[in-house]
Structure prediction request, 174 residues.
Amino acid sequence: TDHSSTVSDPDCLGAIYGAEEPMYAGSEWTAVRDQVAREPDDDNDHWVEQTAVLYPAATDARDFFDRSASTWEYCANDSIGVGGGDYLWMLDGVDVGDTMIVQDATQDDANGWACQHALSFVSNLTVEAWACGYSITDEGVQIASAMIENAMGIAQTSGQSGISPGVVRDQKRP
Prediction:
């Protein structure tokens, strides 16, 4: 997707939305899978998005991680309008670790609706998770960590040292 035209600061697109095509431009990704889980109606109590992206080499995944950390830090402790200004999100500070970036965001005037955004990488794979609800704690980190553990388990089971292109398939680069 591309929500860059509906964000008050397009430089913060990757901090406020997951799986955005402009954020992955130039990253040399080879496959991407994005999945959203939520209640069936429009007024959700829970909303989760998980994204897995494969790259030709581990350095490509690390480069995307590093660029994302810089973007998230640039946007930290700021308010970002989305939906043409219909919604205002307050982005908290960023926790940047060796292999995990975490940032919480709270929607203004939404009775405590908040999200945790987490991004991690291993080998030639990045994973991104959004967990949203009214009492979010560390669910984004839990999801991203589980995705990494799953990918590492698949690689070990197959006897490979890296993550294979067959691990995650949905959209392939043309």
Observations:
- The first strand starts at residue 31 and ends at 38.
- The beta strands are 31-38, 46-54, 78-82, 87-96, 100-107, 114-122, 125-133, 171-172.
- The two ends are 16 Å apart (CA to CA).
- The chain has four helices and eight strands.
